[in-house]
Design a protein that fits this description.
By secondary structure, the protein is an alpha/beta fold. It contains 33 helices and 20 strands. The protein is elongated and about 100 Å long. The structure holds thiamine diphosphate and magnesium ion.
Length: about 775
């Protein structure tokens, strides 16, 4: 980490003002200057930006080292763009097009913004928490010899105070404490306002205790230097100020110096011990604006003093909308200056009309060299990094032998084979699971590759020679990161590990396992990981009602639909072990391919008879989403379409019906997600003149135009029912459309109409209805 260098405070203050101006102007331009073609509100958050500019100036132009990474509070995006505008890494055109198509994004986006965005943000809380996991991944890479000590950085989150209500922050805090996480700064823009109102006071007395309990250092930056001197000289005034509730203080900030004077006179005494007569109203307002988060000296000092690796929470007191006409007003979250207010504020900021986009407008000749020197120094540290792909060689993965097996068991065996064989892929795999390592079949892998702990933990049971199938010793070169039961953390860990190529120039192959229904627990974090184009393999097992006696709340119904609607995540649902091996091989390739994506494997604990193959012709089709496991006759009138764990029922029904229904086909769907994507992509391509049919169109055109499809999945029937729309064929969709209950497979399949009888009935109905 770079040592802090003495920085010209005056230059930093000028940069703070520049950021304040440019952020507000960018938002103003988008709302009031640029033509609005559709009448939709454009928006932006001038007040939320204004409370952060001092903090961000101190951070970016002083405290950040080359390897430090920052998650910026989403609605302070314009400040980040303004910083890069000053650094010449953002264009005026993109700022003029803020919130427009292809312009600077409303919230910082790794993939869509042209500036280097370390972490996308938008859904509050997630950007905060991912920094903890990125720091863990940094430790992981360093411990595995994949990162030089000199390349280590600090992970910084800039947080809104109301954002601290997001529970996922505390899940990450607890997990981080277990792993002794370090090199973290979380900086709270404590403006005491949320979106709707002023924030509740009570909790803010407690945050320091919560963080300290987890081993964090808490630094409160309540007063700026000037305010502190004034308050220290007048203990009564200090007590008065400290006791002001959030709403009262915000209202006074809004009302200004006159109201402050009247209030102090009323609450203390006419001249408050001689204090009031030292200030006119403007000076009084300015003094009380000197909170810690707006005082450059205080921020620089605090950052310089926190150069060790202890995780640190900074509570920086600020004013929402500082310096703007609606400063402190409880409704200012989406407040925008109107053109008259903006014109007056422009003059007050010393910016001439026509010079609004001048990066260094209003800076005098004396100050300019200092400011330019700071900008130059910062430029080097904020370059956009290349994404690292093409680092892993992925071997052919063989399917485990066995006439009967479940996809879950096969997954464990394939990983075990990789672990035993060793090699580059094995070394880049990092597995993680929220307390379901054993029950998702990662146990054998962990026995081989062990748990990761920076400081190592002995396996007491092994030491005491107590028999156990799980050898849980932890070392700093282990490859499994065990998490507590917090699924949101799993996805943030996958996001952090899945960005290791982007962040640290070292691609990892992260694998996360959990129970299929609990994907929903971490869904926003999963979406967040995909939004950032993190690359990983998610293995969810057991799934569906096929887990039988386990039943109840462990049954998953809709994850295939979730996957169908989730960009950046490819759903595969294998029925057989050889399909699974091919999918895992593909998933590893996709992780390391610039045009790849993440993969979600929905697996089952049901052991089923494996299909006999004559050759490999199924493989390519299966990887595209479906293949004819029993070819239909030309123009056949019906087909059975099955997916995953219920393929044995589909096979049995096919055997039973094939004599009565000539040409009856059996289609094995391995990815409704890929089929659907291919279908809509082919439609889009047709508008551009390319008439190539999609994979699903090709498969289904083997059947007659009026053919009937009976679809069957251990999932919501809508996962496959849409297939009828592809060529206008009729569909009888079988699947699970109610919450399930416990039972044997035979009972459950009968009750939920997933058995051979249901298929036979559905085929008959389709044929009769022709
Ligand atoms: C998960 C989520 N819920 C709701 C929102 C909408 N939202 C955006 S900012 C905000 C209030 C944030 O207040 P605070 O964190 O204090 O930030 P400030 O603007 O005051 O700096 C809300 C509710 C969101 N972006 N993400
Ligand atoms: Mg706030």
């Amino acid at each position: 980490m770079l040592k802090p260098v003495a920085t010209d405070i005056e230059a930093l203050k000028i940069l703070d003002e520049r950021l304040l101006w440019l952020a507000a102007w960018t938002i103003h331009n988008a709302n009031h200057v640029r033509e609005n073609v559709d009448g939709l509100k454009v928006g932006g958050h001038q007040a939320s930006c204004a409370s952060m500019t001092t903090i961000m100036a101190a951070l970016y132009f002083h405290a950040l080292g080359r390897n430090d990474r920052v998650a910026v509070k989403p609605h302070a995006g314009p400040v980040l763009h303004a910083i890069h505008y000053l650094l010449s890494t953002q264009s005026r055109e993109a700022l003029e097009n803020f919130r427009g198509f292809g312009g600077a994004q409303s919230y910082p986006s790794r993939t869509k913004d042209r500036i280097p965005v370390d972490f996308s943000t938008g859904s509050v809380g997630l950007g905060v928490a991912i920094t903890a996991f990125s720091s863990l991944i940094q430790d992981y890479l360093a411990a595995h010899g994949m990162l030089d000590e000199a390349d280590r950085g600090r992970f910084v989150a800039l947080i809104g105070d109301a954002e601290l209500d997001e529970g996922n922050i505390y899940e990450a805090l607890i997990e981080g404490a277990k792993h002794d996480v370090r090199n973290l700064w979380w900086i709270v823009d404590y403006n005491r306002q949320s979106l709707d109102a002023t924030s509740a006071d009570r909790m803010f007395e407690r945050f320091d205790e919560i963080f300290q309990a987890c081993g964090w250092r808490v630094v409160e930056l309540r007063y700026g230097k000037r305010l502190k001197i004034a308050l220290d000289a007048n203990p009564k005034l200090k007590s008065w100020f400290d006791a002001l509730p959030n709403a009262e203080l915000s209202a006074l900030h809004y009302q200004g110096g006159g109201a402050l004077r009247t209030r102090i006179e009323a609450d203390l005494s006419k001249d408050a011990g001689g204090f009031l007569k030292q200030y006119d109203d403007a000076a009084l307002a300015s003094l009380f604006t000197d909170l810690g988060g707006h005082c450059m000296e205080s921020l620089v000092e605090a950052f310089d003093a926190a150069q060790d690796d202890v995780p640190t929470l900074f509570m920086a007191w600020t004013i929402k909308g500082r310096g703007l006409p609606f400063a402190g007003h409880k409704d200012n979250h989406s407040g925008l200056m109107n053109p008259t207010q903006m014109a007056a504020w422009r003059q007050a900021m010393g910016v001439s009309e026509g010079e609004e986009w001048e990066p260094l407008a209003s800076i005098g000749d004396n100050a300019r060299p200092g400011v330019e020197a700071l900008i130059d120094r910062t430029r080097i540290a904020r370059e956009k990094r290349k994404r690292a792909f093409g680092q892993m060689s992925v071997p052919v993965l063989a399917a485990p032998a066995g006439e009967e097996q479940s996809t879950q068991a096969a997954f464990g065996k394939i990983l075990l084979d990789i672990a035993k064989a060793g090699g580059p892929l094995a070394d880049r795999i990092v597995t993680t699971s929220p307390d379901v390592t054993v029950s998702t079949n990662l146990g054998a892998w962990v026995n081989q590759r062990r748990l990761f702990r920076r400081n190592g933990i002995a396996d007491v049971f092994a030491r005491e020679k107590i028999a156990s199938a799980q050898k849980w010793s932890s070392t700093n070169n282990g490859q499994h990161i065990e998490l507590g039961i917090a699924e949101s953390n799993l996805f943030l860990m996958l996001a952090a590990a899945g960005l290791s190529g982007d962040m640290f120039d070292q691609r990892l192959a992260p694998i996360g396992t959990l129970y299929d229904p609990f994907i929903a627990r971490g869904l926003d974090a999963l979406n967040y990981a995909c939004y950032q184009d993190a690359r990983f393999l998610l293995v969810a097992t057991p799934s569906g009602i096929t887990l039988g006696p386990e039943g109840g709340a462990h049954q998953s119904i809709n994850p295939p639909l979730i996957a169908l609607g989730q960009p950046g995540l490819r759903h595969y649902e294998p029925a057989f072990a050889d399909e699974l091996a091919a999918m895992m091989e593909t998933a590893f390739r996709l992780i390391d391919d610039p045009n790849g994506e993440s993969t979600y494997l929905r697996l089952s604990t049901r052991s089923i008879r494996q299909v006999e193959r004559e050759n490999d012709s199924w493989r390519e089709d299966a990887l595209q989403g479906a293949y004819w496991v029993r070819e239909p006759g030309g123009g056949a009138e019906a087909a059975i379409v099955g997916m995953g764990a219920v393929m044995p029922e589909a096979f049995a029904a096919w055997e039973e019906l094939r004599e009565d229904v000539p040409g009856l086909g059996l289609l094995s769907v391995t990815s409704p997600d890929l089929l659907h994507r291919g279908w809509t992509a082919a439609q889009a391509a047709r508008w551009a003149g390319n008439r190539e049919p999609s994979h699903v169109e090709r498969l289904l055109s083997r059947l007659g135009r009026n053919a009937g499809l009976v679809t069957i999945a251990d999932a919501a029937p809508a996962s496959l029912s849409w297939l009828g729309g592809v060529l206008g064929q009729r569909v009888a969709p079988l699947g699970v459309d109610r919450f399930g209950q416990t039972g044997s497979l035979a009972d459950l399949y009968a009750a939920y109409r997933l058995d051979g009888a249901a298929i036979t009935e559905a085929v008959a109905e389709l044929l009769l209805g022709q």
